[in-house]
Design a protein that fits this description.
- By secondary structure, the protein is of the alpha/beta class.
- It has one domain (about 1-150): 4-Layer Sandwich (Purple Acid Phosphatase, chain A, domain 2), CATH 3.60.21.10.
- The chain has four helices and ten strands; from the N terminus they run βαβαβαββαβββββ.
- It has helices spanning about 20-25, 40-50, 60-65, 95-100; strands spanning about 1-5, 30-35, 50-55, 70-75, 80-85, 105-110, 115-120, 125, 135-140, 145-150.
- The strands form two sheets. A five-stranded mixed beta sheet has the order 3-2-1-9-10, covered by helices on one side. The protein has a five-stranded mixed beta sheet with strand order 4-5-6-8-7.
- Strand 9 (about 135-140) and strand 10 (about 145-150) form a beta hairpin.
- The two termini are about 25 Å apart.
Length: about 150
């Protein structure tokens, strides 16, 4: 199973997102967004491309904050994936976000606009970075592999 991971889009519509990233979304099983869509049109646009699992972020509109949870837990191919935007200063965010979930294989997060692909206390901490610069791919089989794609 292949998951595209996005965060911190900060645009008004999906037409403002990088074309290479939008093209890649056609080849995944699930789109995961870790918040800061900013506008509802971005969420709605992504849903026209495929199934979306998402959380709200601190910069999202009131409509998005009412429609999406602050954190989400999904299971894909038997792997537990926590999704949360994150908060506070960017320094040390991976450690703070790790405390949001107990027994998970992966935690997808955003907020810092900085990529992260490292393990902390048994969980893969994955932040692809700001959407205008990069996106992520998670491939889930017996194990989880993560890749950050620079645009």
């Amino acid at each position: 199973m292949r998951l595209a991971v996005l965060t911190d889009t900060h645009v008004g519509s999906i037409q403002e997102l990088p074309a290479p990233m939008l093209n890649a979304l056609a080849d995944v099983d699930l789109i995961v967004h870790a918040g800061d869509f900013t506008e509802t049109a971005v969420l709605e646009g992504l849903r026209t491309l495929g199934e979306v699992k998402a959380v709200c972020g601190n910069m999202d509109s009131t409509a998005i904050k009412m429609a999406l949870p602050r954190r989400e837990l999904l299971v894909a191919e038997g792997k537990k994936i926590g999704i949360v935007h994150g908060s506070g200063v960017p320094w040390g965010i991976a450690g703070r976000v790790r405390g949001e979930f107990d027994d998970v294989d992966v935690i997808v997060f955003g907020h810092s606009h900085t990529s992260c692909n490292e393990r902390i206390r048994g969980a893969l901490m994955f932040n692809p970075g700001r959407c205008r610069d990069s996106y992520g791919l998670l491939t889930i089989a017996d194990d989880v592999s993560a890749e950050i794609i620079r645009i």
